[in-house]
Design goal:
Keywords: Iron, Metal-binding. This is Fe2OG dioxygenase domain-containing protein. GO terms for molecular function: metal ion binding; oxidoreductase activity, acting on paired donors, with incorporation or reduction of molecular oxygen. Belongs to the iron/ascorbate-dependent oxidoreductase family. By secondary structure, this protein is α+β, with helices and mostly antiparallel strands. Strands 8-9-17-14-19-12-11-10 form an 8-stranded mixed β-sheet. A hairpin with a 2-residue loop joins strand 15 and strand 16. Helix 21 crosses helix 22, helix 22 packs across helix 23 and helix 26 packs across helix 29.
């Protein structure tokens, strides 16, 4: 019942699946109610003016196609009762409506009619009925007589007509291009004339049997490399056979539409349709009719082809036999040219598919396409295009036309041949354009690998200089995931039989692909079934699966019916370019540490300890063998996890309920940035205390609890052995880890075979939040470690475990051991199952460097903290972290610390914004989404670890703090060298005049008759300047003055008192620092001290504020409340000017309020330094209270202008989010702060900032066909991560989100 909108209430935003493509939306344009729509008074039919009424109906039907009727004889009471009855029906309980729910189409209108090129609204008239003329009735008036128009239609079955309603078979008769066939501007061929290319390779196959044989091969290879296609003549196929085939196809396309539909039904694997096999982007049709059907085995498939025209099957079969012979000739020549063994393609290639197109004449070829830009999914495609050209190929950055040669065939290199040749040959992108004068009929024959064939680069083409560029995959998987034949792909795969050869590799050595022996699961055979279509172990209702190497089905491909990318991959699993593993082959590291634990009990004990320490320092992980855990226990555990993850989705969901602390999910436990999933299924659950947690685990499979518990007992013993050795190696007291470590979390994952491992990840780069993690990864590799600036692969060892050093052990060792960054990649051939067990400190344990490891030469690098705080702040277990904490923590419940992004992304945004090179650790913190460090997109665990690192050498050293704060300096005679900027960044001696044209808005006028003028002034200022000054703003002058005075008093307080607030720790919500957070690392400092804290909600933050000056909290509390109210008023006026609802910017868009006070003492040489760098504000809106000393400068029209301080005025600056929300109607200015030689300057900045997860995109009311959205949707934490990652370069950051 969730589908029924009548069951919804209080809908705040439009669900994504109700948002129409841009060209289908009604938009913001108001369709006026038309006052000239004909109204027919039916009483006139009885009166004397009956003929006049008939004439009115005819005129209305001709001009409008509809009319309204009054006095129609249906009583008003009956109509009112009926309307009320229907309203009552829709208000009924959901379960009552469910009994009559149906997916059959029906429409409810806010009625508008398309007339004379525009939409007009139909005004409801009391007790009137609207009559529409339907498809079945077309009237015309001739010589005063009403006649049924005789337009050449013949009789047909209405039911069949309704089935064909979505198919427009009348393209040949169109006088203009219908709207549904018009492509977006950027995809149209346009008016530009694409000339026919006259140097397209033409291969004379007749010469291949002569002394010209070597030259012919050379020509083919050269054509395949440079063009990706070529034409062939003298091919040996009789022109009569080709002509007969073209003739029957033309006859077929010329048949009445309903006969074509009845002749080709999808469940018989032959079908016809107008447009493409699937709709193109935004629902735009292709200008063509098409029939496609499978062709292999020919004898079987023939029986499924159309029976009419009568010679269809005979002619097409004869043609395909010739195509088979021709394809083998061409492939044989290519095989020879590439240096492959003879017969390389013969046994594994098939003439699998025929696709014939008829492109009718098009009234405007510049607006539409016959086929979209694409590459072919085949080995080769052989195209007969007749004598009418239309094929275009994309070469060297532009389109070229391919001319039609008499009795020639065009050969396209397909994706599979490009892969087999390891990129030596290339698959050309091509498209089909239309013409306005004549129809064009083409026949494309796809020669493909057999479905079970494993496609990979030919081994004979590989060497050290030419490593493989592609990973192996099953061809049927490629077809399935790329939807190579549109939505009919599955029917084609079923309809086309297999050659029974099983799974062969397209490489020299042919061999069968086989499942694992004795798995007890269905083995995939060569029956032509696509992945996930097996009969045994079929998925439950609603499950969509991906078959793995063992025939298992996994939920990771849920959404497989979603839109797929052009490269043939599920869009929600494709990572951004910079995060993908890519096609580069990562070799298995041959010197990866392997620790033989059996030797730890021998004379090799000291050497074993030494090996562990070395591995922990150099790699951050190692493998252990001879660990003492029975292989049977491991195998039993792997088996129950595979059985669990193979269960139907509903059973898994019912078995693992989040509030019972066991759960399963597809992809990550949290979505990553951009909503991208991980390529895996996973279950995780707590494990300590074991006896209690067992009762919460899944009950199915029946042996799940028993097997997993036995495994965890052994892992507990193994973890203590390993930690005991590490303890000894570090020189810690015996038993250091025993009482405080627990086997807390188990996380089991299955990574199904992936059609393109280069695009996605099983786990993103991260470190573990544990002491150690013990991973069993079976015999399928996929674990990679980031070492010395690049990734290395970790091979699998039989019955071995991989041990990761976690964040907590890195801290306890004071950095002596390292927590390795690692990830999981996928593969295309077989599933990979892993079990990760996290050995963590107890939740109340205080983590800090071991005292025995800290001395004068090795100072303490990390601050102490409770492990449960680390878990909460880093969200170490994803969005289930609070559940873990609630169930495991024995301390009283207390609010969780603010999330990293809500705290750091706001504080660092404005405190660290001033650094020209953002510190790597802090930038990472800000970029980090709050996700599961077991599977984070960015490394939440490492980020918190970095923030715990003692960032400042001044913490705790009062004297050094007093030395660095410039507010403690006096009578500075010369500028310290560390404050002198490079010449290209200095403000210099040039005087920047104070600009007199900066807009000044009198907010007092906004409540009177001048409101509209005030709104327009704000809008104009925000467009032209991006900022303005405001007077009469509503904040009492005494409140503003008191705030300025109290901040000056604070900076004048004794140095020892200010030192208590000094910190470079980004986790502190109230802090004082100098220059930037990167003071220790930056090459040059800014001439300022800064004091920052949160202000909203006031009651949650005021306790963190200074108690001295004694009036601080009262004064700043009143000021921050007044300023927030002022800024929300400004935002409402901006919303009004943009045509948005009042309050549009309130709540989540302006949730966070940050106060940041800068204090600049007199500077001995302002020409050499800056108070703040040039930047744009990344937030929603900013306000600056300038005091009476100038220093703010804005970059406008290529030069800096000074902003003159006005008495009791505020400067309002539009942030980058306001620019995006307004769709670039408003601008966000670049500004900076310069210093003054004689006066101190104190400024109070207030920032309104969106919450981290709020989705930001151009306001819908501002978008229409003429004003498309310039930015895609994103959440603020994603934007801020990008902003800091581009060194706070606004344009570079915005570019990442532009459409």
């Amino acid at each position: 019942m969730l589908k029924l909108v009548s069951s919804w209430s209080n809908v705040q935003s439009l669900p994504e699946d109700y948002v129409f493509p841009r060209d289908k939306r009604p938009g913001e344009v108001i369709a006026p109610l038309c006052k000239t729509i004909p109204v027919i008074n039916l009483q006139d039919a009885i009166a004397n003016n009956r003929n006049d009424m008939v004439q009115q109906i005819v005129n209305a039907s001709q001009e409008y196609g509809f009319f309204q009727v009054i006095n129609h004889g249906v009583s008003e009471a009956l109509m009112d009762d009926t309307m009320k009855l229907f309203k009552d029906f829709f208000d009924m309980p959901d379960e009552d409506k469910a009994s009559v729910y149906s997916e059959d189409p029906s429409d409810v209108y806010g009625l508008q009619v398309f007339k004379d090129g525009q939409w007009i609204g139909v005004e409801p008239i009391t007790n009137a009925i609207v009559v529409n003329i339907g498809h079945q009735l077309q009237l015309k008036f001739q010589a005063g007589n009403l006649q049924v128009a005789k337009l050449g239609y013949r009789k047909f079955d209405l039911r069949r007509y309704m089935k064909m309603e979505d198919h427009d078979f009348g393209l040949c008769n169109e006088k203009y291009v219908p709207e549904s066939y018009i492509f977006p501007q950027e995809e149209r061929p346009g008016e530009l004339l694409i000339p026919i290319c006259h140097n397209i390779p033409v291969i004379d196959l007749g010469k291949a049997a002569s002394t010209e044989h070597p030259n012919t091969i050379e020509q083919i290879l050269k054509a395949g490399q440079q063009f990706g296609f070529f034409q062939v003549v003298n091919h040996g196929i009789s022109e009569d056979i080709t002509n007969d085939t073209v003739r029957v196809l033309k006859d077929f396309f010329g048949m009445p539409a309903e006969e074509k539909v009845s002749s080709t039904t999808a469940n018989r694997s032959g079908w016809v349709y107008t447009s493409s096999t699937g709709y193109a982007k935004d629902g735009v049709h292709l200008w063509r009719e098409n029939i496609k059907h499978p062709c292999h085995p020919l004898e079987e498939c023939m029986q499924l082809w159309p029976e009419n025209p009568s010679k269809y099957r005979e002619a097409v079969a004869a043609y395909l036999l010739e195509m088979g012979r021709l394809s083998l000739r061409i492939l044989k020549l290519i095989c020879e040219g590439l240096g492959l063994e003879p017969g390389y393609f013969e046994e594994s290639s098939e003439v699998q598919l025929l696709s014939a197109n008829m492109y009718p004449p098009c009234p405007d070829p510049s607006l539409t396409l016959g086929l979209l830009r694409h590459c072919d999914p085949s080995l080769i495609t052989i195209l007969f295009q007749g004598n009418v050209s239309g094929l275009q190929v994309f070469k060297d950055g532009h389109w070229i036309g391919v001319g039609a040669l008499s009795n020639a065939f065009l050969v396209n290199i397909g994706n599979q041949l490009e892969i087999i040749s390891n990129g030596k040959l290339r698959s050309a992108e091509h498209r089909v354009v239309t013409n306005s004068s004549e129809a064009r009929t083409t026949i494309a024959t796809f020669i493909n690998p057999s479905p079970d064939c494993i496609v990979e680069p030919a081994t004979t083409l590989l060497n050290d200089d030419n490593p493989p560029h592609y990973k192996p995959f099953l061809y049927k998987d490629f077809v399935h995931y790329s939807k190579a034949f549109g939505p009919d792909t599955e029917a084609i795969q079923k309809g086309g039989g297999s050659n029974g050869k099983g799974g062969r590799r397209l490489q020299g050595q042919m061999r069968k692909r086989k499942g694992r022996e004795g798995s007890g699961r269905r083995q995939e055979g060569g029956d032509g079934d696509g992945p996930g279509q097996g009969r045994e172990g079929e998925l439950g209702e609603g499950d969509k699966g991906v078959g793995n190497r063992d025939g298992e089905e996994n939920a990771v491909a849920e959404g497989a019916d979603d839109e797929v990318l052009g490269e043939g991959f599920l869009e929600s699993y494709v990572f951004p370019q910079e995060d993908r593993p890519g096609k580069l082959l990562i070799p298995i590291c041959q010197n990866f540490p392997v620790i033989d634990l059996g030797k730890a009990a021998t004379i090799e004990h000291p050497n074993t300890i030494k090996q562990i320490v070395k591995a922990g320092q150099e790699f951050g992980c190692f493998q252990v063998v001879n660990h003492g855990i029975s292989e049977d226990i491991i195998n039993d555990t792997v088996r129950v996890f595979k059985d669990f993850l193979g269960m139907p989705a509903k059973e898994k969901a019912s078995s693992t309920i989040a509030n019972r602390n066991g759960w399963v999910y597809t992809a990550s436990s949290d979505y990553a940035r951009d909503g991208i999933h991980l390529w895996r299924d996973n279950i995780k659950h707590p494990c300590h205390p074991l006896e209690e947690c067992m009762q919460l685990w899944p009950e199915k499979p029946s042996k799940f609890r028993e097997a997993v518990a036995a495994y965890l007992v052994e892992i507990g013993r193994l973890s203590l052995r390993i930690l005991k050795l590490i303890c000894e190696a570090l020189g810690l007291e015996p038993g250091y880890f025993e009482e405080s470590s627990e086997v807390q979390v188990l996380s089991a994952s299955i990574y199904p075979p992936c059609p393109d491992p280069s695009l996605t990840l099983g786990l993103v780069k991260h470190t573990d939040p544990s002491l150690i993690t013990i991973l069993f990864e079976g015999d399928v590799s996929g674990f990679q470690v980031f070492k010395d600036g690049h990734w290395i692969g970790v091979g699998t060892l039989s019955n071995a475990f991989l041990v990761n050093i976690g964040n907590q052990l890195e801290i306890i060792s004071n950095g002596k051991l390292k927590s390795a960054e690692h990830r999981a990649v996928t593969n295309s051939s077989e599933a990979r199952a892993t079990i990760a067990t996290f050995i963590n400190p107890s939740f109340d344990c205080v983590i800090e460097p071991a005292k025995a490891l800290v001395n004068d030469l090795n100072p303490q690098l990390y601050k102490p903290f409770q492990y449960k705080d680390f878990v909460s702040t880093s969200n170490a277990f994803g969005h289930h972290s609070p559940t873990f904490l609630h169930c495991r923590s024995k301390s009283p419940n207390k609010p969780s610390p603010p999330s990293i992004i809500d705290d750091l992304a706001t504080i660092v945004a404005y405190d660290d914004l001033v650094s020209t090179a953002v510190d790597d650790d802090l930038a990472s913190v800000v970029r980090g989404t709050i996700i599961d460090p077991l599977n984070p997109r960015f490394d939440g665990g490492k980020l918190v670890l970095d923030s715990l690192l003692t960032l400042s050498r001044y913490d705790g050293d009062c004297q050094e703090i007093m030395d660095v704060l410039i507010s403690n300096w006096s009578n500075v005679q010369s500028l310290p060298k560390s404050y002198v900027f490079p010449s290209g960044r200095r403000p210099g001696n040039q005087i920047v005049p104070l600009c007199k044209d900066i807009p000044v808005v009198d907010l007092g006028k906004a409540e009177g008759v001048d409101r509209s003028e005030t709104v327009q002034k704000i809008l104009k200022a925000s467009q032209q300047f991006g900022f303005f000054q405001v007077i009469n703003h509503g904040v009492p002058e005494s409140v503003a003055d008191n705030a300025m005075n109290v901040f000056k008093e604070f900076f004048g307080m004794p140095a020892e008192y200010k030192a208590t607030f000094y910190s470079n720790d980004p986790n502190k919500s109230c802090r004082l620092y100098t220059s930037t957070l990167n003071y220790d690392k930056e090459e040059v400092h800014y001439w300022r001290d800064n004091f920052t804290h949160h202000c909203h909600p006031l009651e949650d933050n005021i306790q963190d504020w200074p108690e001295n000056p004694t009036t601080y909290r009262d004064i700043v509390g009143a000021y921050s409340g007044g300023v927030r109210e002022f800024l929300l008023r400004i935002l409402d006026l901006i919303a009004e000017g943009l045509g948005l609802a009042t309050g549009y910017f309130n709540s989540e868009l302006s949730k966070i309020q940050l106060l940041s006070v800068n204090h600049h003492i007199p500077c001995p040489d302002p020409s050499l330094t800056l108070g703040m760098p040039e930047h744009c504000d990344p937030n929603l809106i900013s306000m600056i209270h300038q005091c009476d000393i100038s220093g703010l400068q804005v970059f406008k029209d290529g030069e800096w202008i000074g902003v003159e301080p006005l008495p009791n005025a505020f400067v309002v600056i539009a942030g980058l989010q306001l620019r995006v929300l307004s769709n670039d109607m408003l601008t966000s200015p670049i500004h900076r702060v310069v210093t003054h030689p004689h006066e101190s300057r104190t400024t109070i900045c207030t920032f309104l900032i969106p919450s981290s997860d709020i989705v930001i995109e151009p306001a819908g009311h501002l978008i229409d066909a003429r004003n498309p959205a310039f930015y895609r949707a994103y959440n603020y934490k994603e934007f801020f991560g990008t902003f800091t990652g581009t060194n706070c370069d606004a344009e570079s950051a915005l570019k990442c989100f532009r459409v």
